[in-house]
Queue: 2 jobs
Job 1
Amino acid sequence: MTEITKEQIDAQLAACARIAAKLGSGAKAMVDTYGCQQNEADSERIRGYLQAMGCSFTGEPDEADVIVVNTCAVRAHAEQRVLGNVGALVHSKRRHPGQVICICGCMMNEPNVVAKVKGSYRHVDMTFPPQSLWRFPELLEQVLSDGKRLFDANDEDSVAEGIPVVRQGDTKAWVSVMYGCNNFCSYCIVPHVRGRERSRSPEAVLREVGELAAAGYKDITLLGQNVNSYGKDLPGNMDFATLLRKVNGVPGDFLIRFMTSHPKDASPALFDAMAQCEKVAPHLHLPVQAGSDRILKAMNRGYTAAHYLNLVEQLRARIPYVVLTSDIIVGFPGETEEEFRETLRLIEQVRYEALFTFLYSPRPGTPAAELPDPVPAAEKSRWFDELVAAQNAISAEKHAAYVGRELRVLVDGADSDGKHDLTARTAGGRLVHLTGDASAIGTYQMARITGASTWALFGELK
Ligand code: 5AD
Ligand code: SF4
């Protein structure tokens, strides 16, 4: 792991200034982001650099001098969408030949994808993987000066501080606390494309959270592929529960969220910290992936269903109203109907507020992609629909239990459903459609919950 120095980042900022002079005034950039919140956080840094290059932002490819597409490799479906949209950029490039098209993110660490872009997407000028994000200005400058296509393949894991940031919105913010993943779940491409786990220093995290709180941000999410591994690579006894307590000590009226927690590393010490820190939201996203011990083992998850259920029990003993959400993969290679039914039983036992459900998608280069997969797609799809229907019924019941309660919510925007004025989030992260005055946007308010559906709550400001 390399620490990128201040001098190295200063050199990138100097490149930004030279690019700004070259692009001239009125230059515009478009950033298109796919995938997880880590990618959203990365794109905020890309926008920071682009702003330092004098660019303003547009959502129209035709208006852009520089286009950056930040890609996701986690499922084949996401990849196909990205490639379709990158393909369509050929039209804006034709109308605007000086336009520079860059692709970055996890797909740019898959050699077969980069080869495809090289050969079949000739309008793309440059690609770089997540490990090279901090060098984006230097790479762009090279393309602008020699006019040659550039395919960067840097797999050196690093941590860089001091990259400028342009955030999306002014109430919610993402703060990466670590990068990479060491778990190698057998279906997952992430450890192959984002490198090994490395943590930012607690000082850097606290500085960033302090700046956000001072700027009035109200909802701050700490990000990492597996936040419970935080600090393992740092000196001393740093761990995620300790970091949460320190972040909780930052002055200001804001809520702290975090994701993602791996059940093999989630511990009573974490739950104690959540229960004792008043700013930590009563919400845990704890992906279970499957309810069958045989499948969990084949996924290399490192826990059993019983261990998972015990964690949930311990958490609820400390925080009775905690909101639990999870990820589930349906149709892992060789999963039987009986094993799928174990997943259904688990979700009935846990009763999550909401689930993110995925059909298994083979990722080339992962061990699971080599396994025989005899179950027909139509069968998996039936299981998937059954799981979604079961969860929808649970979500609707859980949401109905909120009706009549009065809750503190963060009003985060204007509503577009035609019936309500505002959208808001409960401390547990549930969406609330509200009637009330627009002056409440960006503030905490008390709301009376008057109705509920599978997806959301409805109410009015008090
Ligand atoms: N197929 C389907 N879903 C996947 N996920 C990760 N890899 C795959 C895959 N190959 C899901 C997991 C993870 C979430 C972010 O994406 O559920 O928790
Ligand atoms: Fe993928 Fe597993 Fe790492 Fe999550 S913990 S990113 S599912 S390997």
Job 2
Amino acid sequence: MNFYTLSLFPDMIANCFNTSITGRALAGGKLTLENINIRDFANNKHMKVDDYPYGGGAGLVMQAEPVYGAYEHARNLITKRRKETGRKTTTPVRVVYMTPRGETFTQRKAEELVRHRELIFLCGHYEGIDERVLEEIVTDNISIGDYILTGGELASLVVMDAVARLVPGVLHNDESAVTDSFSDGLLEYPHYTRPEVFHGKRVPEVLLSGHHAKVDAWRLEKSLEITKRIRPDLYEEYMRKGSK
Ligand code: ADE
């Protein structure tokens, strides 16, 4: 999986993504990440990439030209990589714009996005980006929730992290993605490790029994109980459809 980001703060993305499991996956070549600075495509000597909104109002709007320049650069890198790896594909590249105006991100969306070899993430700042360039390049508008961030960088990191861990080989066996919350539509059961007693609280007896069927039944029961209490919407959905 090859990620490309278009942003005014590429270091913010690089520093975070280069850490922990995603950092290991970058080092091991399971993922690649190119952070393209939109400011490098400014067309003036002050390297300005924003301007006042037509029609007036507060805030500045990111201009179409530098955003388009950064996008073209990403496209060129993708074409080059496709050639180098002998991939003849002409599949259109998905361009994900991180915006509170987008569809809310879910595990299902992560499962859809991971099917693509390349993804471009566009991160805005200020009041937004000139609509004309968005109309031209964006294929997906994604929000990570009903709140406003200062920019799209953190949001794109959230989406990239969720997609990255679905790429085969990114998680090791002991970090398996299969039993996680949401993979079957339920929230996860509680976990315990040594010691057997902590602050007077014992690990549930069934987990020490070595009886796998009973452990599985207990975990499902806990998952159902927790989902019903915390996310009744997911619980109802699960009960309606049954597990996948
Ligand atoms: N940019 C600013 N706020 C955002 C949000 N909630 N989701 C995605 N991108 C954003």
